[in-house]
TrEMBL record:
Membrane topology value: Multi-pass membrane protein
Family indicated by similarity: Belongs to the anoctamin family.
Protein name as annotated: Anoctamin
Major localisation: membrane
UniProt organism field: Ameca splendens
Amino acid sequence: LMRNWWSSRKGRHSSENHYSRWEQDYVLLNFSQIGLFYEYLEMVIQFGFITLFVASFPLAPLLALFNNIVEIRVDAWKFTTQFRRPVASKARNIGAWQEILNAVAILSVVTNAFIMAFTSDMIPRMVYLYAYSKDASMSGYINNSLSVYNISQIHPDNMPEDYLHDNSTFTCRYRDYRYPPGHERQYTHTMQFWHILAAKMAFIIIMEHVVFVVKFFVAWLIPDVPSDVKARIKRERYLIQEYLRKYDVESVKLQLSASFITEPQSETSLTPGEYEMVSECS
């Protein structure tokens, strides 16, 4: 907008009675061949951030929807008032951007599965409920999910200041699955940790397959081209074939009529002597 305003100070501005539309648009910004590159890049980056980390911020798709609704109108105003009219060109699809979006969509399933498995308490709670709970309830889950550490083993330089004044605390609890101090394998992961890790990996694999099956089913259920559009395409092809057939028939008729007209002319163009000689030879 600022560049157009600056260039308009040097341009000619008047009504269309004096200058044509293309002369008035000459002072606008030139729409280059990569003019849509940054528009596609912006949408692909937005799509990537939303799909890759939607489990961390589920409100992001709604905010992106509001942003895109506003941006559609802003881009329409920009392309119609701030840029020269672009040269139209045919394109079968959006090109490499389609493959990039498909790759991001597949990768987003993996990232969201890892986020859900490793940042939530769903898997540890289920493992505790079905494998380690004595009464098939969640009672004792918090105590089970905390490990013990001996404070006396902390290096003096890293010792908390409060501990120097109060020596009544000898252990602390932290969230992990490790053997307590005094055990032959102290501070190493317990078997419950590996059970939870295996359950998380199984959840990731199952979730990926379920999402991919749903994706392929929805893609098969919803066609890329609507049925009415397919019918119109078939009708257009039929009309083109009929037109070409009629054109071929008319061209053949014209050739035949032209041959019938030219043959008598070729005979009459002969001289009387030549005609007699041809008749004698025949």
